[in-house]
Amino acid sequence: NAGVTQTPKFQVLKTGQSMTLQCAQDMNHEYMSWYRQDPGMGLRLIHYSVGAGITDQGEVPNGYNVSRSTTEDFPLRLLSAAPSQTSVYFCASSRLTSGIRTDTQYFGPGTRLTVL
Amino acid sequence: KQEVTQIPAALSVPEGENLVLNCSFTDSAIYNLQWFRQDPGKGLTSLLLIQSSQREQTSGRLNASLDKSSGRSTLYIAASQPGDSATYLCALGSGTYKYIFGTGTRLKVLA
């Protein structure tokens, strides 16, 4: 199993550009999520999904869109990049227990994004 | 609002020492707590998951405990090795589907 994969590993954008960060998992996990990690602030939840067609907002959703058309993939879209979105982005997945609670979370290697 | 604190922010110990990392939280209404390890420039690796009904979990040289009444979890590392050097993060499953992370403790084990 490849686990959780993310592409690209690094990306530089100019202010106002849009792009999509890709995330895929091969563990048939229902739950997938996106976090951003900033120095001194820890990881913060952006969006999450509990299955195909079901997404919801986390703590810091503004400026980001997600969709979940398959169990395996959960892309994160930056609509109009801003310097404040410079960060390291992590995707994670987990199975759900009893259909409502996340179990052990597995993380991808991250995407380091710089917005100029 | 749930707040998660990890103290100290950084720790340096000689090889072979037993050590304890702390994770404190303000709201005891959690359903699980997970400890992770993060190496520089890498993703997070899960170490231990404790369900709210459990008091502790063990894996090899690692032992994690959970005391909801005092709002505290500890990660005990026995016989530390230079390969244990990393940042250790705790995360609380608090509220439906959402995890709250601490800012981590950066551990350096000196050979």
What would the keywords be for this entry?
heterodimer; A: 116 residues; mainly beta; four-stranded antiparallel β-sheet; 13 strands; globular; B: 111 residues; five-stranded antiparallel β-sheet; 11 strands
Q: What would you say this structure looks like, in words?
A:
The complex is a heterodimer of chains A (116) and B (111). Chain A has strands spanning 4-7, 10-13, 19-25, 31-38, 42-51, 54-57, 64-66, 76-78, 87-94, 96-97, 101-102, 106-107, 111-115. With 116 residues, chain A is mostly beta strands. In chain A, the strands form three sheets. In chain A, strands 2, 4, 5, 6, 9, 12 and 13 form a seven-stranded mixed sheet that branches. Chain A starts with a strand and ends with a strand. By secondary structure, chain B is mainly beta. In chain B, 0% of the residues lie in helices and 56% in strands. Chain B has strands at residues 4-5, 10-14, 19-25, 32-38, 44-51, 56-59, 62-67, 72-77, 86-93, 99-101, 105-110. In chain B, strands 2, 4, 5, 9, 10 and 11 form a six-stranded mixed sheet that branches. Chain B has a five-stranded antiparallel sheet with strand order 1-3-8-7-6, with no helix packed on it. The interface between A and B is medium-sized, with 28 and 22 residues.
Weakly predicted, low-confidence segments of chain A: none
Q: Please give the share of residues in helix of chain B.
A: under 10%
In helices, the fraction of residues of chain A equals: under 10%
**SSE-based structural type of chain B:** mainly beta
Radius of gyration of chain A: 13 Å
Number of helices of chain A: 0
User: Can you write the helix and strand succession of chain A as a string?
Assistant: EEEEEEEEEEEEE
